[in-house]
Amino acid sequence: MEWKNQNSTPSFILIGLSNHPQLQILLFFIFFVIYVISLLGNILIVTIIIIDTRLHLPMYFFLINLSALDIWCTSVAVPKMLTNIIMKRKDISFAGCVVQLCFFTSALGTELLLLTVMGFDRYIAICYPFHYTIIMNKKLCLLLAAAVWIIGLVNSLVHTGLIFRLHFCGDNILDHFFCEVPSVLRLSCTDTRLNDLVMTAADSFFGISCFLLTLVSYTYIISAVIKIRSAEGKRKAFSTCASHLTVVGLYYATVIYTYLRPAFSYAMADDKIVSALYTILSPVLNPIVYSLRTKEVKEAFMKIVGKKIFPQRI
Which PANTHER family does the protein's record reference (predicted)? Predict the structure, then answer.
């Protein structure tokens, strides 16, 4: 069998979610609508937080970062997927695949870190309410946000750099709807043990460590909430965490399932549906969850809408 390196590989063939011709129009419509809703929803969240000064708090500052990541994540994978659905050629160049893999891996790692930071923010807010503004000051928030973005980018660059040492052969058919590290590694004709080792180490840090830190934060949060005597106080304390806890549960379940299994089983089953959950559905659910579960966001939205529709009454 002839071996080809990245310089002689013209493209990868992306199978997509389904190769049945009769489903292509339906899939295009469904994911186009989801993508538009995701973009509009996250842009709306960012706009509301920027406009309403009452939301200029650490919790909503991190929510802006989360919305930006969701826009980035979906924009990396979905437009190419939609293009491939309506085009006869479903290929992606090696360079395009590497760029997509790099950007997506960066967004994935950054989001896991950001969710951990958001859990820490809720821990301080619930357990140390009187010192919250002192601890979570502007400087610390900026440093935390910068750290998660930088660490996510560095992790991505390491994985991307290791891709260039691999050789690919055969038809380079990628049974996925975008380029992701586990699926690309399965196409390699060369030894990927170094890639697997680095990926396992990154998974342990971003997946397990971040999950455990978030779990510790919420253990203290639940303990503090239980000690609150009034039912109204408990409800208010829990409502500030419910949105974040919902997002964390969905995101970690799907990401850990996809990225930890390769460490234990190289011949793993296709994970396209699970990948679609955190690549496409999670970004569209996040603004919905936060807008429905967060009273301040709903009030800010109604206030802005009221000014536009009934300016004379505001």
Answer: OLFACTORY RECEPTOR
